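Q: Is it fine to ask for two folds in a single conversation?
A: Yes, each is treated on its own. Send the first.
Q: Here.
A: Result:
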Amino acid sequence: MFDQRLQSIILNIVDVSYGGENGFSQAIELSADTLANVKFVQEKKLISKFFEEISQDTGKYVFGVQDTITCLEMGAVETLIVYENQDTWRYTLQNTSTGETQIKYLTLEQAQDDTHFHDKETGVELETQEKTLIVEWLANEYKKFGCVLEFVTNKSQEGSQFCRGFGGIGGILRYAVDLTEFEEQEDFGDFYDDDDFL
């Protein structure tokens, strides 16, 4: 029944209690030592470490494009985790009247909204200087931020959860960062009246 010619390439035999995809995942977990260098296992370990930081609420994690870029620029990211098919684009935009340059990270869907390409205060159209996939930009620039770049897939259960639930980009930080300090303060000038607090 079993072809003996295959015997020489068998690394490990494990018993699983499930069939289908769950059985496959269990077989991979049981064979983790044997398959230590296989990317799928490394990916699962990496994302599990990311989820562990979140579950323990250490503050040493970041996710979402803008927050991750903020932490990268601070040098706080130790391991940058990016979904290999991330569909976010990095736009370098220039205000033609003032000459100011700004960077925006937009999905193709967001890029359809013309308001992203106009100055909020003056309404002047912003000229696109450069448009690059964020995956390509990070692959070229990550060393400048002193971090390790890891690409992941959505093929494993953990990878799929990372892509769907955390936007497919995030990182494990060297130290805890409170990102609320970096959020732009909204102007509530007319919203609250001083008499409300007396």
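Q: Second one now.
A: Result:
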Amino acid sequence: RRSRKELTSIIQAINRGFQYGVKIRLPHAFVMTLLFQKHLTPLQKIKKMLRLTLEHSTNLAAFAGIYKTILAILKITSRSVNNGDKLHWIGRFIIRLIVDGPYQSRGIRLSARPSGLPERPYHSLVAGFVGGYIVWGRDSAVNYNIVLYLTSRILVGLVTLAREKWMTVKETGQARTNSYYGLWAAAVWSAVMFLFEEYPHILNGSLKRSMEEIYRDGEDGDRGG
């Protein structure tokens, strides 16, 4: 019964990942292809939109399936070992070290988690690492943009987490955060405009095209005059 619930969670995650990928990528691919791929024929544009949508949705589905599968394997193994299944003490120690991490040596008994959720805090790290390498480790335009997006979101999240854990929040905390945000926005835009003007070749292709659309079109004829 427990394995059946985990299997249901895996199938549902795969289905949701594919549906979400179609919902997110198809409108984005439609707009970006129409705006920046004017040299393509209508049929080529349709094929490109479908290809990008399929890659995004299948990658999300594959990652969700791998992630949930590894979580289920780690969870079932952890419960089996901690429930006293017959194993040599060396084998038990090694398996517990793998599936329970640092908690096994502290004698901490963590409560069981529902199906589809990590049994131990670090299980999500392991499952995410494996799934990330297998699915998102292939260098492609879709994967690259998603990894860039996640990198920025992780950095912001880590800063927020650090502020919550180690900084005292006072009544003026919101005003202080707003002032930091203003400086952050200024630094980001200062840096990206400098790179665009002086070293445009190092910028991401879609970012470079977007900035050229705004800051370059119509100006080439004015140079040198």
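Q: Anything structural to flag on that second result?
A: Two points. The two ends are 78 Å apart (CA to CA). The chain has seven helices and no strands.
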